[in-house]
Each structure stands twice: as structure tokens, then as C-alpha cells.
């Protein structure tokens, strides 16, 4: 019969038998993380993973994939490269998780892995931006059409200019402005001093200003 | 008039963390004020472009699947063994164990009671670095390493450095060296007769 469970419930139909519904993956214990993992904090997940529980890494991915993807997107400016990079970040994390010492949060550590992956990618490839996506960023709530267009153009120009920044400056700008990390956190992620981070940030803004004026 | 703000100070000013004396300069310097205002305005514009378009809701599971596929053949990394993670303290402990073992060996040479001249033994003890018998660290080391044979110690690289042996020999008195020579010859002789 081609009626799924949701449809049957929606029309108020109840089966005459009493079946215990179990998710297939919970029977084999593969895809669905156990309750203890779902409730575990990041440190607990890392410990479980290093103790041999592969499914703990699934939970780590699920928990951090949005942040990692957004970080990658802000580096490369398009979905395809960002999704490839996000995958790359998690594969690197899988291989290198035993090096995670717990001195910073797992999120910060993943950012470090992500920034390195992005900087490596930028070193070998200068990705194309997606001008067509800039239209999606125009704030439709603004009533004045001219203002809407001007704002959209300004935003597009800023995105293009950010892609032209030197990698370290771009990393600093992305982490500071978009990811809202402190200078100290950025220094840990980039492996540099706080002073260098501030100087990089200042030069990033200066270069951005120059690029926008030109 | 004090000097203009430096690059890091502009960033501190954007964060509202500029020291008071520099704030005083900022209040009176039109150039720095204009620069800071431009940076703040640019930051606001940049922040406004930060929205990442949300991918398809199916994307997240797709990404998880891709990661799973890419790592399915990878072995789950094992945590670094404690003895690897703490190799530096281990080396320190090993060095202490060597010193303690050598101390124990030198203080109670196997043939001392039978053949060693009394004067040599006395000199030996007097010239040895003083290792208190009631030191719990020494007792621990002696207990941990005391049962090791020379071959076992060599097997786990618990051997003294060459320079340490040279130094120990240099510090011996003539009587101690003579005793050492005698012991070595006796061991060599015993080795040849065993075979």
C-alpha cells in the first residue's frame, strides 16, 4: 500500500494492529548516534571518538557543520567551493583529532583547521566569486528601490574586494567581523600574536577601503 | 600635540578599548578622528554583507554523508599513548633511574666483600655523590630499576650517555680505577670460561 505513516496519521487512520516502530539505523547501531553521544559535550565526543566510537564524529560534524560551512563560504564566496572545503575540513579533523589537546574549544580548533584549509585552497586557486548571488543579499524590506540597488551594489563591491585581500588579512577580517571572534581567539587560530592580528585587521580595512575607492 | 594613533590603536579604538591618554589625543586630532570614523563606517558596511545564503535544507545531511563516505576507510585515530605523550618526563625519570641504578651498583659491587681492598671501598663511598638512603625518590627509582639486568636496560635504551661514563671514570680515584679494571678483567675472564 502506498500510504506512508505521516499521511495515515494526517487523515486520522489508525492501524488495527500494534506495531512497535523502530528506526532501522538504531537496530544496527550505525547511523543514529546513541543518546549518550547526543547529550555529550564536545570534549566527551572527542573522547568517545578516540576510544573507537566512529559515530561520535558524526555528532561532531552535525554540531559544527553550519559554522564550518559559513566560515568556508566567507573565505571563498561561493557554495560549491565552500561545501568542498567544509568536507575537507572535517576529513582533516577526523584524521587529526587526536592532536586536539582541549586547550581551546573544539569549535576554535575546527576554525583553525578550517582557516588552514581555506588558506591552502587560496594559495593554489583564486576562486571565482558568484555575482549572481549578490542579488540575494539585497534587503527587500527597504522601500526605496534606488537605495535598494545602491546597497546591493555596495555589498557586491565589498564582497569582491574582500576576495582580493591577501589571505591572512582576509582570514583576520572574516574571523573578526563575521565570526565575531576576539583578537586573542584569532591569534590562537592563526598561530600569531595579538599585535599581529590587530595590525592585519587594520591593513585589511585599509586595503578594502583602497579597493572600494578604485 | 601627542603622536597620531598607530594601527593597533585604531583597532583598539574600534573595540572601545583605547587607553585614556590616547582617547585624549583622539578627541583633539581631526586626522585620527576622520580615519577612525572611516574605518568604523567600513566595518559596518562589511558586517552588513556577512549573511551567508542558507543552502538547501538537504545540504546539511548531504555534507554529513560526504564526510562519512570520505572517512569510512580511515581508521579511527587512537589517542597518543601516555608514554609517547609524556616522553620528556619519561626521559627524566629514566635518567634518574640510571643514576640511582648506577649508584646502587657502585655502592654495593658484587665482589666487593670478597676481594675489594678496604681502602678502595672506603674511598669509593666517600667520593660518590651523596644519595640519602631515606630519599623516597631514590627508593622508588631503585625499586623500579633495581631488578633490571644490563641487557634489559639496553633493550629499552636505558643506557647512560657516553659522556656520563667518561665523566664518572674521570672522577674516580686511582684506587677506584684499579678496582674497576680488576672487576672488568674478572668479568672478561668469567665470560671466556663460560664459553
Short description:
With 214 residues, chain A is mainly alpha-helical. Helix content of chain A is 69%, strand content 0%.
Question: Mind explaining what this structure looks like?
Answer:
With 214 residues, chain A is mainly alpha-helical. Chain A has a domain at 34-128: RNA polymerase sigma factor, region 2, helix turn helix motif (Rna Polymerase Sigma Factor, Chain: A). Chain A has helices at residues 5-10, 24-28, 35-39, 42-50, 55-76, 79-96, 106-124, 131-134, 145-163, 167-178, 183-190, 194-213. Mean pLDDT of chain A is 79; it is low at 1-31 and 130-138. By secondary structure, chain B is mainly α. Chain B has two domains: 7-48, no CATH class; 82-194, no CATH class. In chain B, 70% of the residues lie in helices and 0% in strands. Chain B is elongated and about 95 Å long. The interface between A and B is large, with 49 and 35 residues.
Considering the chains and any ligands shown, give keywords for the structure.
heterodimer; A: 214 residues; mainly alpha; Rna Polymerase Sigma Factor, Chain: A; disordered N terminus; B: 195 residues; 2 domains; elongated
What order do the helices and strands come in, and which of them pair?
The complex is a heterodimer of chains A (214) and B (195).
Chain A: H1 5-10, H2 24-28, H3 35-39, H4 42-50, H5 55-76, H6 79-96, H7 106-124, H8 131-134, H9 145-163, H10 167-178, H11 183-190, H12 194-213
Helix pairs in contact in A: 4-5, 5-6, 5-7, 6-7, 7-11, 10-12, 11-12
Chain B: H1 7-14, H2 20-28, H3 30-48, H4 57-71, H5 82-85, H6 87-107, H7 112-115, H8 118-127, H9 136-145, H10 150-155, H11 162-170, H12 174-194
Helix pairs in contact in B: 6-9
Amino acid at each position: 500500500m502506498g500510504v506512508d505513516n505521516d499521511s495515515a496519521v494526517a487523515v486520522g487512520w489508525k492501524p488495527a494492529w500494534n506495531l512497535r516502530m523502530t528506526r532501522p539505523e538504531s537496530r544496527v547501531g550505525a547511523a543514529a548516534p546513541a543518546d549518550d553521544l547526543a547529550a555529550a559535550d564536545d570534549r566527551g565526543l572527542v573522547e568517545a571518538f578516540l576510544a573507537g566510537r566512529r559515530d561520535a564524529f558524526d555528532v561532531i560534524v552535525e554540531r559544527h557543520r553550519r559554522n564550518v560551512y559559513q566560515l568556508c563560504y566567507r573565505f571563498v564566496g561561493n557554495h560549491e567551493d565552500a561545501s568542498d572545503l567544509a568536507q575537507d575540513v572535517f576529513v582533516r579533523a577526523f584524521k587529526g583529532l587526536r592532536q586536539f589537546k582541549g586547550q581551546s574549544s573544539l569549535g576554535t580548533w575546527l576554525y583553525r583547521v578550517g582557516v588552514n584549509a581555506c588558506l591552502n585552497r587560496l594559495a593554489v586557486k583564486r576562486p571565482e566569486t558568484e555575482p549572481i548571488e549578490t542579488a540575494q543579499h539585497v534587503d527587500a524590506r527597504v522601500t526605496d528601490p534606488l537605495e535598494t540597488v545602491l546597497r546591493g551594489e555596495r555589498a557586491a563591491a565589498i564582497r569582491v574586494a574582500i576576495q582580493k585581500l591577501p589571505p591572512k588579512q582576509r582570514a583576520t577580517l572574516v574571523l573578526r567581523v563575521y565570526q565575531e571572534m576576539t583578537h586573542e581567539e584569532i591569534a590562537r587560530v592563526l598561530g600569531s600574536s595579538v599585535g599581529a592580528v590587530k595590525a592585519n585587521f587594520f591593513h585589511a580595512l585599509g586595503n578594502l577601503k583602497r579597493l572600494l575607492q578604485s | 600635540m601627542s603622536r597620531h594613533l598607530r594601527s593597533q590603536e585604531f583597532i583598539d579604538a574600534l573595540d572601545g578599548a583605547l587607553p585614556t591618554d590616547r582617547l585624549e589625543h583622539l578627541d583633539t586630532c581631526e586626522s585620527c578622528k576622520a580615519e577612525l570614523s572611516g574605518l568604523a563606517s567600513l566595518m559596518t558596511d562589511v558586517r552588513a554583507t556577512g549573511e551567508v545564503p542558507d543552502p538547501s535544507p538537504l545540504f546539511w545531511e548531504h555534507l554529513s554523508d560526504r564526510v562519512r563516505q570520505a572517512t569510512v576507510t580511515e581508521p579511527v585515530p587512537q589517542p597518543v599513548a601516555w608514554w609517547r605523550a609524556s616522553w620528556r618526563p619519561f626521559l627524566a625519570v629514566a635518567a634518574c633511574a640510571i643514576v640511582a641504578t648506577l649508584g646502587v651498583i657502585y655502592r654495593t659491587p658484587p665482589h666487593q666483600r670478597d676481594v675489594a681492598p678496604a681502602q678502595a671501598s672506603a674511598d669509593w663511598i666517600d667520593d660518590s655523590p651523596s644519595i640519602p638512603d631515606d630519599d623516597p625518590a631514590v627508593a622508588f627509582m631503585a625499586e623500579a630499576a633495581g631488578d633490571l639486568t644490563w641487557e634489559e636496560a639496553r633493550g629499552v635504551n636505558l643506557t647512560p650517555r657516553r659522556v656520563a661514563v667518561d665523566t664518572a671514570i674521570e672522577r674516580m680515584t686511582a684506587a677506584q680505577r684499579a678496582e674497576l679494571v680488576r672487576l672488568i678483567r674478572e668479568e672478561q675472564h668469567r665470560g671466556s670460561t663460560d664459553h
